[in-house]
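Table 4 source record.
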Amino acid sequence: MKKLLTAAAALAAVLIAAVALLSLPRAERDGPPRVTGTCSTEGPLQGGAATVPLTFAGPVPIGGFPRLRWTAEGTRDPLAVRALVLSGPGCAVGLVSAEILLVPGALERAVSERTRDLGLGALVVGATHTHAGPGGYWDSFVAARIATGPYDPAILERIADAMAQALRQAAAARRPVQAEAAEVDARALARNRTGAAADGRLVVLRLRAGPEVVGEIASLGTHATLLGAQQRLLSGDWPGALMRLSAAPRLFFPGALGDQSAAGPETASPERYAEAVAARIERAPLRPLAPALAAARAEVPLPWPSPGGAPRLLRPAAGRLLGGGMPAQAAATAVRIGPLLLVAVPAEPVEEVGRGWREAAGPGAEILSLCGAYAGYVETPERMARDDGETARTYYGPAMAARLEAAIRMAAGAAAAPAR
């Protein structure tokens, strides 16, 4: 017994020393945002869109929830990657959306490298955030156990290839288009799971060539979790069903969904919920947009990771353990079409944070979440001080919202449309 007590005491001492060492203060990662790319045009716009099936040669993990068994047991509905390219003289912008959970930094870089010859002034690489999509593409010790399953580089390469192929097809399909947009109140389809405000902003951007719809972007801030954690078949959940309802390629990007879930009797199935969203899209009061296109990307250093799910005293140590798998900087990409400003961010902001970011970006701004190297949830500093709201799901500390807001302000300002 004495030996056991001695060994236990020695182990406790080692653990305490390790935590103390990991908790030592570090020089703050700080600095102002910087613009890393811009383009603009006032010429006639050309646009193209494409859909590429997302299939795999063998079994893949199913991402979205922690699991004991990760391998998917089949496919519930067909998965795809969709892309849209919009351009004018001297400026081209590409947006691509895949039916996956999120976008790790390595995937964003792989798509960018594969499409460098397209001459895109801005590239938005997004995920629909389905919690039943393929996993295995994030090389992260933590993510492999709680979100995307065992890493397989071949899966990352396959997704990157499909995204690049969709962008190439969209670029090749460009023709003269008229852009039109609308914002629809869809609060009946959303609820805030923490009891705060529901977002319910349904944003629609449509490209037309005469009466023909060339492509479309839709954004709504509700989680794609209708199928639940017991789902064993690959699926795009309700965003996948929504995109399949459109004859022309329809790209889906989540809005400010950090604390938002689907609501209403329509949640009985992904298909029924998708039909309710699609009905609102069809009734949207679309307005023509001026043929002015501008884009800018701004990057900003992120704080050191400080996982909100860990006890306060252990957060510095947990942050050091997590740090290698999380980005050290984040980027906001602003795409302005006439008065509409789409701001793509690599995180999941809660409704209040998303509202603040829209105000910071200026009139006409809309937030597209989960675009670029994933940086986790973003909660308000006030709620984080109380360990409230979505704090347990955050990876960075309370400075995160302000850091990304600084990048959003800079990107939005740099993408200001030329005066007409």
